[in-house]
Write a structure and sequence with these properties.
111 residues, alpha+beta, 3 helices, globular
């Protein structure tokens, strides 16, 4: 999948192991890197359902965003990074049509 970032600062942080570790700590940075590698290797968001990280859609004021577990209680937050989003005939998002994501950040979604 294609990965973009909310802004240049976030992109620079996430693309530098040193900056990522400084911002989130060694363990959390390692897990963030793993999740980014998984996203990059996936053909579509559907592939993420089979990998560790509990990829899922968020609800409430986070509707339209997705979450991957990083280190409790933190999650990697992202949204769909393109406009051609399809729905299943039965309703809901067709995860196989999602081929690009935009990283929003890492946060505790339960605050």
């Amino acid at each position: 999948m294609e990965i973009t970032f909310k802004n240049n600062k976030l992109e620079k942080t996430f693309n530098s192991d040193k900056k990522l570790q400084k911002a989130y700590g060694v363990l959390c940075a390692r897990k963030i890197r793993t999740r980014l590698d998984d996203l990059h290797a996936a053909d579509s968001l559907e592939d993420m359902k089979l990998l560790p990280g509990r990829c899922h859609e968020l609800v409430g004021n986070k509707k339209g965003q997705f979450s991957l577990d990083v280190e409790q209680p933190y999650r990697l937050i992202f949204e769909i990074g393109h406009k051609d989003i399809k729905s299943k005939e039965t309703g809901g998002l067709d995860w196989t049509s999602v081929i690009a994501v935009k990283i929003i950040g890492v946060e505790n979604t339960h605050d």
